[in-house]
Amino acid sequence: MTTVSLTVNGQSVTADVDPRTLLVQFLRDNLRLTGTHVGCDTSQCGACVVHLNGQAVKSCTVLAVQANANIVTTIEGISQGGELHPMQAAFREHHGLQCGYCTPGMIMAAIDIVNRKGNALDEQTIRTELEGNLCRCTGYHNIVKAVAAGAQAMAQTPLRQAAE
Amino acid sequence: MTATGIGAPVRRKEDQRFVTGQGRYVDDFNRPGQTYAYFLRSPHAHATIRSINTGPAKIMPGVVAIFTGDDLAADKIGGLICGWMIHSKDGSPMKAGPHPALAQGKVRYVGDHVAVVIAETLAQAKDAAEAIVVDYEVLPAVADTAQATKSSVQIHDVSPDNTVFNWHLGNKDETEAAFARAKHVTKIDLVNNRLVPNALEPRAALGEYDPGNDNYTLYTTSQNPHVARLVLSAFIGVAPEHKLRVIAPDVGGGFGSKIFIYAEETVCVWAAKKVKRPVKWTSDRTEAFLSDAHGRDHVTHAEMATDENGKIIGLRVHTIANLGAYLSTFSSSVPTYLYAPLLSGQYDIPAIYCEVDAVYTNTAPVDAYRGAGRPEATFVVERLVEKTARELGQDPAELRRKNYVTQFPHQTPVIMAYDTGDYAASLDKALELADYKTFPQRKQESARRGKLRGIGFSSYIEACGIAPSQAVGSLGAGVGLWESAEVRVNPTGSVEVLTGSHSHGQGHETTFAQLVSDRLGIPIDQVSIVHGDTDKVQFGMGTYGSRSGAVGMSAIAKAIDKVIAKGKKVAAHVLEASEGDIEFKDGKFGVAGTDKTLGFGEVALQAYIAHKFSGQDLEPGLKEGAFYDPTNFTFPAGVHICEVEIDPDTGVTKIERWTAVDDFGVIINPMIVEGQVHGGIAQGVGQALLEGAFYDQSGQLITASFNDYCMPRAIDLPSFQVGMTVTPCPSNPLGIKGCGEAGAIAAPPAVINAITDALGHEDIAMPATPQAVWRAAQKTRMPMAAE
């Protein structure tokens, strides 16, 4: 067993883990943060996307020990004071989800796209940037709309962006 | 229309938990003392098991137990079942081979279940599974649909030539006569490619046993938990029905694949009692590819006869349908009664004859996948109509219009009685939205850039609202296909609706609440929808076949009517009026012709305190249940138009425009309905351009991961233009037809018709990958650039 210490959603966490434990397993099994999902075993689907030091990563391809002394944010950690993050609100407003399984990864990936590409995202950019995330329900039509709207809304809430 | 009533695009109630990571899927549940199951699966497509030595594995760290088929047999656990009996042309019943949950003496496909290891951790279970020694005698295998009956391989003792049944529908003599007098006959050979449903949430099961009460609980990824309970108890014999609680919590997509009762959930609930601890299994994606029921997999030859006026006078179809190595829960119904009755399409075709040969192969079982039989039928009809138009030199839209059914009700020669529709209205609207008139200019402009542009139609119909119980019973179904609902009004006036439908992405918690809010005149946040737990909900049939609106909501509507009727009785006592004078309007019970009214909540309270009436005159309480059995199938229909541009140098097909005009009858929530259309189209485009499950000759699945099986991504799809026409469905009280499968049914022929239009020849199969299209494009003589 190996000891890992990291910050998850603003809280310090220390645990003993089997060295082969993946970050996604650590989040789901040790911390019971089950909003981060596993949809494949080949790093293709993106249901497990979280932020590691502010950048999107697939938590199925990161060992928990690699996250030692780092900062992890999951879908459970992005709304503040009971208010949805603008990207969460946009997914709801634009019906960017159906079964909800890919949704946490989509939202975490979308926030990362905005962080990298800015708040004015055209359709082509969004579709290209979503290459790492699969959705089987929506046909992406409303996800694209949600990401565009969420990106614009994030521009109006600079404080939240900084916090994220 | 109120802001939350029928027809309003209400934002979904369930989304709060999904966007915050608070959804609760099966794998999110953990029970005290839980163990982990891992299934050892066959690496061979076909083999006799000489012996299984679990000795070395049993002493591995963390191993709790290892079970094989012998252990299930010793406990008299039955095999998995197929619940729809099909009879062959000669009257003989289908040949159903045994389907044990864990192999008994033989394995029949790669991924077949050989043993289960139960351990303290999943890693320990996997490690131990590697130490199990199985002595296989590998047998030759057959995986190819068209070769199944010609092969010397015999998969089941009951079927020497791998035939499950030779079934037919329609009138052969009349059809032959129509072809004899035809002016033109269009012929086509089609492969409807095998697909893997790939709901993003893999299947999972968590079984638990309570020895104190002899109760079993199964958390499972199911679209129909009551059906799962019935099958697990009455047929497989895992536990008595009243002792087994099946919970299907949030389920991450189904598309048919979670209708069926599988080996893994059977084993988990059985093993929980054996090891006296909860047993959890979660599929990984590779296991899902190997062992989820696949979809489609037809090989078809079809011919369409037309007269001198371009009227379709006959259709004959021969299909070989691959059902895999075992008959899954509803597999036999898919290439038969969900397929051939749709071969009339939207057209007035006087004579149709269809033969279906269903076969076993050494592949995963094949069963219903979004559309289930109807996409296969639509592909046959719409490819043939398009090809006929080309061969006759007619506009494909106008040839369709000429042949549309225009008088309703319309009895087809293949069972179905279409109740209502206006197919020309959908076509007109689609042509306008697609800007069809200016397509030639766009084609010319593409040609100038060296690109091939094509346009393709799909004028689809489906039979949904599944289904009148007597009708399906006469066709071989083992169950009725009604739905149930219970409307519980609380003393405070809030309402819980318990429904036998199950939501796994469809948004029932919102749409069903809209109906209740609309009918009872109460705020939508006063309504809760309860589903997916056999301990809470009365028996129900579940969600598939685009049935939850037409059938499930009709049951709710019926129960609401009873609640209102009972509320009138209560109000009559309270208002001291005669029951016949009580009216219910806008959420208030009032005495006709007076201003005396009682709010819905007040009547609810009065019903429960029961102070204003004698319990002998009127039962206290306000709770009503209903079972609704539909009187007919429903017939959603529409027109989809796909416009593509092909780069002949790379073979890449880009969908430039997608126009969908659908008639789903009355729509409860247009936002959700459009979302269903989008998702269906994406799966249909996936089938047409990207997806295909392929087995090699030895029966190895060579597309068993997302690296090898090409799922549609955002960049592969356009935004969709979705329009609606409405003819209310006359056969249910809400006028709903259903929308869940339309896109997946409509899309494949629209795409392939567009590609073949662009190519100028018909030689392309699904999936039309860049490589396939590039090859096909080399046959196409490029028009000279008009410069």
Task: Give an overview of the whole structure.
The complex is a heterodimer of chains A (164) and B (787). Chain A has 164 residues and is α+β, with helices and mostly antiparallel strands. Chain A is built from 6 helices and 5 strands. In chain A, strands 2-1-5-3-4 form a 5-stranded mixed β-sheet, with helices on both faces. In chain A, strand 1 and strand 2 form a beta hairpin. Chain A is globular. Chain A starts with a strand and ends with a helix. Chain B folds into 4 domains: 197 residues, Aldehyde Oxidoreductase, domain 3; 163 residues, Aldehyde Oxidoreductase, domain 4, CATH 3.30.365.10; 203 residues, Aldehyde oxidase/xanthine dehydrogenase, molybdopterin binding domain (Aldehyde Oxidoreductase, domain 4); 147 residues, Aldehyde oxidase/xanthine dehydrogenase, molybdopterin binding domain (Aldehyde Oxidoreductase, domain 4, 2-Layer Sandwich), CATH 3.30.365.10. Helix content of chain B is 28%, strand content 22%. Chain B contains 19 helices and 28 strands. In chain B, the strands form 7 sheets. A 7-stranded mixed β-sheet of chain B has the order 3-5-1-12-9-10-11, with helices on both faces. The longest helix of chain B has 28 residues. Chain B is globular.
Short descriptors:
heterodimer, A: 164 residues, alpha+beta, Ubiquitin-like (UB roll), DNA polymerase, domain 1, five-stranded mixed β-sheet, 6 helices, 36% helix, 15% strand, globular, B: 787 residues, Aldehyde Oxidoreductase, domain 3, Aldehyde Oxidoreductase, domain 4, 4 domains, 19 helices
Shape of chain A: globular
Measured distance between first and last alpha carbons of chain B: 56 Å
Number of helices of chain B: 19
Report the uncertain regions of chain A. Answer: none
Task: Please state the second-level CATH architecture of the largest domain in chain B.
Answer: 2-Layer Sandwich
Q: Largest beta sheet of chain A, briefly?
A: 5 strands, mixed
Beta strands of chain B, count: 28
